[in-house]
Write a structure and sequence with these properties.
By secondary structure, the chain is of the alpha+beta class. It is built from 22 helices and 10 strands. It has 3 domains: about 190 residues, no CATH class; about 230 residues, no CATH class; about 220 residues, no CATH class. Helix 9 packs across helix 11.
Length: about 675
């Protein structure tokens, strides 16, 4: 054949179907651009050397995998649609004497052209906008910007290789579809209707039951760690339930509308409802995809926006004092009053030597272990690895002496030798007595609040059960400490002491310099006193601020990028849905016009069809978000974000903004549908 024959056929086929290919190309270009930008930021030296740069780069690496996997799945979806639209053309080629091998040549050229345009234009756009993305990221991280355009060779290589692999797989799938179909099936594939799914009532009921179970999980789980574990399970349940409901439920909705004679036998509704029934399986899957993408966008944007704008709140919650010291003791003797006074003096002297004036001091001794509350108020130490699925049954048991409790809370509580105070956080305790392993049995005098302890073990993801005992040494006197580790493994009851303080007016830079001297010399200060049995960990607000901003800022930026990709995908699904249905309904409306239907009645029928189903994904996405709110809020608490008002505000704004965008897309695509059928 003449040189360039297959190329010309491929080019002309794409040009004549530009309404289908242009949105597809734009989406491919967008995904290539986003992946390059992510790769550029991942390897940016400016980002790496900036505030929280290491954390940001790790986050970008994760984002690259998400975009790559999503691009593969979504482009398979859109490519299948394009193949359905082009099948008639390929069937005619086959009927006119062209072999399937020749058609494969055309497909190869189409794929190659699409790949080259997508990658070249996408990379150019990515290079152009990468600097803007870098500046935006530095703005988010409050870092120092640098000017000048740079190109990431590794980013170009990774992006090109990733999409080369994706387009190769798309080509193989297209070849498979062509070889699997006969000439007649290819010609008629576009006109083949879809039967409503069988047993739709069972599928629908199952979908609603599954969705109700997911909603129950979302609102019933109060433990942040359990919320994190169950969140991903609930997400899978919601996705499956959404597809089941839309595929079966929409069929049921159409049947109900058909039985309503007053509604169905009207010019505005008759054609639209009949058309929806004809292709409901595909329609339902498309609407479910839109709903899931919308929910993902809302969850990502609202949660990461809350995290980013609540960074300072999270820092102040996590570090109510500027310097946090945690010490681990080898024996109970190390927690005696005399020893604690000695340790306090060492810490204060060392802090002063490093230039600080400790103020607003918070100090506390306590015992800590993983435990399980049994019937009757008996508490058993429990190894966290003992039951991989039993996290919900675990609590963090903490025993605190009454003296330290009164100092922290500013109270004057009194206890008899056999009495305790109980404070349950993220859990409940209903017993009247407490019995911890070999320790004596205590009566619960009352349950109380313990606000100051929140800042001590805030990072603990387990529910907290705080037990205030009259005397810590007496309470633990019967514990076999020698064999405790062998007996309880990782749940050995830890002997801990915290000493947290403010530096006395140091600014951020001075605090960081102070930490460099203080943390490095603290072990030496204890060693000079002959104390070698204590290990410690020191954290500071300013020292960890970069990691907080790096993590939250990176997640926020990544959420913006992924949301753009998901919105592009949702818009493309909506567009293809409207265009494909427009071409399918074109002949029907032409016939209806010939028998007397006016253009005004056609427009009413179109509006009826679109409005009947178009806004259901948005409404269901809003419902998903409403029920997900409590679970997401608990997951955010693991990141030290406890500002519920901020999360509620960002959720409301995110939904309102997405709804406005959704309406705009609806108006544009419905107009395109009308132009085709009218």
């Amino acid at each position: 054949m003449k040189r360039g024959f297959y190329y010309n056929l491929a080019y002309e086929g794409m040009r004549k179907n530009k309404k289908m290919y242009i949105p597809y190309l734009l989406t491919c270009i967008c995904m290539v651009m986003m992946l390059y930008i992510i790769q550029y930021l991942k390897h940016s030296e400016v980002i790496q050397n900036g505030r929280g740069g290491t954390t940001v780069c790790m986050t970008m690496g994760l984002g690259g995998w998400v975009i790559g996997i999503f691009s593969l799945i979504f482009l398979f979806y859109t490519n299948s649609f394009l193949m359905r639209r082009r099948s008639k053309e390929f069937g005619l080629y086959n009927m006119l004497g062209m072999s399937k091998k020749n058609i494969v040549h055309i497909l190869c050229w189409e794929t190659f052209i699409t790949f080259v345009i997508s990658v070249v234009v996408g990379l150019v756009c990515g290079i152009v906008f990468s600097k803007l993305a870098e500046l935006l990221m530095l703005k988010i991280l409050t870092g120092q910007a640098s000017y000048g355009i740079s190109v990431s060779a590794e980013g170009i290589l990774v992006t090109s290789a990733a999409f080369a692999a994706i387009f190769f797989l798309l080509l193989l799938n297209s070849i498979r579809r062509v070889h699997a179909g006969t000439t007649i099936s290819l010609i008629k594939s576009e006109n083949v209707g879809e039967k409503p799914p069988k047993a739709n009532r069972i599928l629908g009921v199952g979908g609603f039951v599954l969705l109700a179970a997911a909603y129950y999980l979302a609102v019933s789980i109060t433990d942040p760690l359990s919320a994190m574990i169950w969140f991903f399970i609930a997400v899978i349940m919601v996705i499956v339930a959404t597809y089941m409901i839309f595929i079966s439920g929409m069929v049921l909705l159409c049947k109900i509308l058909q039985k309503n004679k007053k509604y169905y036998y009207k010019a505005a509704h008759f054609v639209s409802v009949s058309s929806m029934v004809y292709r409901m399986k595909r329609n339902g899957a498309g609407l479910a995809s839109i709903c899931i993408l919308a929910t993902m966008v809302l969850v990502m944007i609202s949660s990461t926006t809350s995290l980013y704008f609540g960074t300072e709140d999270a820092l102040n919650t996590r570090y109510p004092r500027e310097i946090n010291n945690t010490f681990w003791m080898e024996s109970m003797n190390d927690l005696s009053d005399a020893k604690i006074k000695e340790y306090t003096q060492i810490v204060r002297d060392h802090a002063k030597d490093c230039g600080a004036s400790p103020s607003n001091v918070m100090t506390c001794r306590f015992l800590s272990a993983n435990a399980s509350v049994e019937d009757g108020g008996r508490i058993i130490w429990k190894d966290v690895d003992e039951k991989a699925t039993g996290f919900a049954a675990l609590v963090r048991l903490v025993l605190i002496p009454l003296e330290d409790y009164n100092k922290l809370e500013g109270t004057q509580e009194t206890l008899k030798d056999d009495e305790v105070l109980i404070c349950a956080k993220r859990t409940t305790y209903k017993g009247n007595t407490v019995s911890v392993e070999q320790m004596p049995e205590y009566k619960v005098k009352k349950q109380t609040a313990f606000t100051e302890f929140d800042s001590i073990e805030l990072t603990d993801t387990l529910p907290l059960l705080l037990v205030v005992v009259p005397d810590l040494e007496k309470a633990a006197a019967d514990v076999d400490w020698e064999n405790a580790k062998d007996r309880y493994g990782n749940s050995e009851m830890l002997k801990k002491w915290v000493y947290n303080f403010n530096t006395g007016g140091m600014d951020a830079a001075a605090q960081i310099n102070f930490m460099s001297d203080y943390n490095g010399g603290l072990s030496t200060a204890f060693g000079e006193k002959g104390i070698m049995s204590i290990s410690h960990m020191t954290e500071s607000l300013e020292g960890n601020k970069e990691d907080f901003y790096g993590t939250y800022g990176g997640l926020f930026f990544l959420a913006i990028v992924l949301s753009v990709v998901f919105i592009f995908a949702a818009v493309l699904i909506i567009y293809y849905k409207q265009i494909s249905e427009g071409y399918e309904d074109q002949n029907k409306f032409a016939i209806m016009q010939k028998v007397g239907m006016t253009k005004g009645e056609i427009r009413k029928s179109i509006n009826s069809q679109v409005l009947t189903v178009f806004f259901l994904p948005l409404l269901l996405a809003g419902l998903h978000m409403a029920f997900a709110f409590p679970m997401v809020q608990r997951v955010l608490s693991l990141f030290s974000l406890t500002n519920a008002q901020l999360f509620m505000l960002t959720t409301g704004i995110s939904f309102a903004a997405f709804a406005v965008l959704y309406v705009i897309v609806y108006r544009i695509t419905s107009k395109a549908y009308y132009n085709i059928v009218s």
